Structure formats: C-alpha cells, structure tokens
Amino acid sequence: MNRDFFRITSSIERSSTTLIVIALTIVITGCNFPGSPATATSTQSPGESSFPPTVEEAAAPETMARKVLLLTNEDSYDPEIIEIRDEVVDLTYQSDLELENVTALQDDMLDSGVSLVFVFEYDPGVLEFASRHPEIQFVTIGVPGVATSNNISVLNRDGLRPDRTAFVAGYIAAMVADDWRAGVVSIGSGAESEAIKSGFINGARYFCGLCRPVFPPYYEYPQSFQMDTSGQGWGQLAAFIQENRIDVIYLAPVEVFRSIESEEIQLTTAIIGDGPRPDDVPESQWVAAVRYSAIESLRSIWNDLLDGKGGWVIHWELRIVDVNRDLLSEGRERVAQGLIEDLEAGFVGTGVENTSE
C-alpha cells in the first residue's frame, strides 16, 4: 500500500510541475521584457482602406515647365557674344528648362513659366519689361546704357580692351618667335586698329626689350602691317611676311580675316588670333587665341538667377585658349597667364589710353 501511495503522489507532483511550466511559458511569451524583440503590430486605423489610391487620388498638381527666353541677333559675328549665347543654351538644357528663341519681346510672352530672359546686343525696352515683371530675371549681353536692378543683370562691353588682348599676344609672339621676329596685322585705320597695333608692339617689347635679332636680316621687330577694311592687300601681306622673315603674326580681329582670306594665298607663318582659328589656317600653324570670355562668371551666378536673385555685373576675363602645345609650352603659357594677372591688377600697363571707360 505504501508503494502504491508513493506512486500516486509522484504522478500528481509530475502533473503539477508540468502545469506550472506551461503556465509560466504562456505568461513569459505574452510579455515584452526590456531587450526582447517587440511583436510587430499593424498601425492601420479602423476604417482605413488598405487598397492603393486611385489615379485621381495619386495625381500630383500639374506644374508649368520653367522657360528661358533668348532674344538675340542671329547674324552676330562677335566670337565673345556667340560663346555666351551657346553657353546660355547649354546651361538651360542642363537645368532641364525649356528654351525659346524670340525675335521680339512682348508682355504676353512673359507668362508664369518664364524664369529668365536673355537680351543680346540691342535693347527692346528691357527696363520697362523688368519693372512690369519683377518675378522674372533679365540679363542683358552687350546692351549699352542698361544699369543693374533687383531683376536686371548686365554684361556690357566696357571691359573689352583690344589693347590688352594685343599686349598679351605680342608678349607670347616674342616668346615663341625665332629671334624675336614677330608682327601684327590689323584691319582699318580707326582707334581700335591703332590700339591693337600699339598694344602688340608694347607687349612684345615688354618681353624682349629692344628685340634685336642675333642673325640677319637685322630688321627692327616687332613689325606691323595694316590692311584696309575691304581686305585688299592680302597678297601684299604674304610678301611682307616673307620679305621681313616674320616667324609669328597676330591677326586681329581674326573674324574679319576669316571672311576675306583667299584659299589661293596661304600664310606659312605661325599665327596668334583673338578668336577661333579660321578654317583655312592649319592646326600646325596655330599658336593660340588670346580673347575675352565671360563663361565662368556666368556659370558662377546661374543658380542664383534661377533662384530669383539678380542685380549682377557679369565680368569679362582675358584668357589664353586653343593652345597648340607644339608651339606654346605649358611653362610659357603660365608666364603669359601671370602677365594677364598683372594687367588686371594694374601692375602693368599696355601704354595705350583706355577709351572704353
């Protein structure tokens, strides 16, 4: 009997223990102790639909595309102006804006989608348009007599000095020419032509002093040659270069030479220009272009213009571009760049009176 009693008691104890373990397990799993992972729960509110929104509910308000108006003279041959115009086109597309070329400016064109208006070389009454549309930024390029305001920025031509361009070109020509044999070819007899000739000669002599050749012929350098505005004298120019043993010449304005150059008369000397290389000039004869550019200045304010911040004066910078490394080394270019910095800082003068200010 004692053996049966103990067997029953032991069975009851085991059953009780099992029930206690099961109860504790249920309690523990129902609790979230610190450090234990929380059970994911739904955050959907009662009555909130779990279906995706309809097309009407998901559609965002339609926004009007931002636009840039370009009022320009397509017949312009000015390389600086053409470069700025092309840069405006590139920046517009890079900013995912629409571009519209217009030949005149009217109020009904300036709808709520227009952010910028660029006006090139002539004034359609930009001051009046800007006052009537203060939400739009206007930028004038080469338009005289326009002052900055809250929504007008300007790039005028006052900073373009052909004597400085020619001064740097003369300096480079003297550096690369054999025995200082450099020359300048200018068009016409006006003040700009005289500034180009004097600036070049002074720039060359700033580098080589008296510029006396070591070997014959012992001509005085640098030389200058003047052509009339019709381009007459192209043949005489080739003879002049050969007779005076000119090694490097500066053509300015080079755009004029592009239009009058004869395919039958090819120059054999190295050439520096104030603009892009003419097609008839072989790359092997092209030294470099010394010209003004406002690209970097425009890029630096582009985002501000898009944000509605105006009143900027865009600056021209004198640059050496389109360099032929076979004729102008990096070291010599750095020296010429230092001269440009000295000119802009006022440490060096061209010897030509500035008539643009």
Give a structural overview.
The strands form two sheets. The chain has a six-stranded mixed sheet with strand order 7-6-8-9-10-11, with helices on both faces. It is an alpha/beta fold and 357 residues long. Strand 8 (248-252), helix 8 and strand 9 form a beta-alpha-beta unit. It has ten helices and eleven strands. The relative contact order is 0.11. The longest helix has 28 residues, at 2-29. The chain starts with a helix and ends in a 12-residue tail after the last helix. Helix 5 runs parallel beside helix 6 and helix 5 packs antiparallel against helix 10.
Write the layout of secondary structure elements.
Layout lengths: L1 H28 L25 H4 L8 E5 L7 H16 L3 E5 L11 E7 L5 H7 L4 E5 L10 E4 L6 H15 L5 E6 L3 H18 L14 E5 L6 H10 L4 E5 L1 H7 L9 E4 L12 E8 L1 H12 L10 E5 L8 H16 L12
Parallel strand pairs: 1-2, 1-3, 3-4, 4-5, 6-7, 6-8, 8-9, 9-10
Antiparallel strand pairs: 10-11
Short description:
This protein is α/β, with parallel strands linked by helices. The chain has helices at 2-29, 55-58, 79-94, 126-132, 162-176, 191-208, 234-243, 254-260, 295-306, 330-345, and strands at residues 67-71, 98-102, 114-120, 137-141, 152-155, 182-187, 223-227, 248-252, 270-273, 286-293, 317-321. The protein has a 6-stranded mixed sheet, sandwiched between helices.
